[in-house]
Specification:
By secondary structure, the chain is an alpha+beta fold. It has helices at 14-29, 71-79, 88-95, 97-103, 129-135, 161-171, 228-241, 270-276, 280-292; strands at residues 2-7, 33-38, 43-44, 51-52, 63-67, 84-85, 113-115, 142-146, 155-158, 176-180, 188-195, 198-206, 220-223, 245-252, 258-264.
């Protein structure tokens, strides 16, 4: 069985390269050939819907691990009948934090959240009257997040009106949300890696110096056995968003009840391997090959 691993041509770091190697090795161990291809090697004809493959006349793979956020390419490949892990719609829903929360509204507990009004990036937020309405619903401190961001970047804690104004002005017109600050979860959260309908690995992330627990943002990690409620939330989120695999980040509520933070459709797994010894790549390949046979 052969597959493609499609990644972004323009984003390259050692961290990403290592992740790709792990997936390719996991596939090889399972007897599958996984070929790394960058998204720029495909050409989508929007008139006909045709996708021109890297090699003319190349045979379509049995499966595609789509480790990118090129939604247009993902959708075009699916229209050709290819099975993507994850699907285009699931990747899109997770890439935009406001869309994630909208899709999950009323289904799991989440922080109270308000979307910023749309503006144009070249104009920015040149009128902040909307902030008054947010302040009437959320008390300080509260969280301001850009809708598109990873590794804890573009997430800010506004402690006052002046800080909120500064954060908004620095956002430069990019889409944002304002969220209730869950003080009981300050500097700690749970990352649960889900594959298929199983929680395959989990860790507690914590940071005594920052409200964010992300490892890339300076946090630490340790092994953690998630509660039934935390596992149930992670699995429900993935079912609702139709994710084959994901990293689900869960906060601790005032009584340690689970509160959803974020969902990552392309979650890295090196840190959770270092913490737990569990290779999520093996679980993902096993899930894919099991579904295809």
């Amino acid at each position: 069985m052969k597959g493609w691993l499609i990644v972004n041509r323009f984003l390259y770091t050692d961290k990403f390269s290592e992740l790709y190697d792990w997936l390719i090795r996991a596939a090889a161990k399972a007897g599958s050939e996984l070929t790394l291809l960058t998204n720029d090697r495909f050409l989508v004809n929007t008139d006909s819907g045709e996708v021109i493959y890297p090699e003319p006349g190349a045979k379509a793979p049995d499966y595609v691990i789509f480790w990118d956020k090129d939604i247009r390419l993902a959708g075009a490949l699916e229209a050709q009948g290819l099975r993507l892990y994850n699907r285009a719609d699931a990747i899109e829903a997770c890439d935009d934090k406001s869309l994630t929360l909208s899709r999950l509204a009323g289904k799991v507990r989440m922080p109270k959240t308000f979307t910023f009004p749309f503006t144009y990036e070249h104009l920015g937020f040149n009128n902040l009257e909307f902030l008054d309405r947010i302040e009437a619903k959320l008390s300080y401190p509260f969280i301001i997040k850009e809708c598109f961001g990873s590794f804890g970047a573009q997430v800010y804690l506004a402690r006052s009106h002046d800080e909120a104004v500064s954060i908004i002005q620095n956002a430069g017109g990019r889409p944002c949300i304002a969220q209730e600050y869950i003080g009981s979860g300050r500097g700690r959260d749970i990352r649960i890696n889900v594959v298929g309908d199983e929680c395959v690995a989990a860790m507690l992330r914590y940071n005594d110096e920052d409200f964010r627990a992300n490892i890339t943002a300076g946090g630490h990690m340790k092994q953690y056995a998630p509660t039934d409620a935390q596992q149930e939330m992670a699995l429900k989120v993935c079912r609702e968003l139709k994710l084959d695999y994901a990293g689900v980040d869960i906060l601790f509520g005032p009584d340690d009840e689970p509160v959803l933070c974020e969902v990552n459709s392309n979650a890295h797994f090196k840190s959770i391997y270092d913490c737990t010894g569990i290779n999520v790549a093996d679980a993902l390949i096993s899930h894919i090959l099991g579904e295809k046979t």
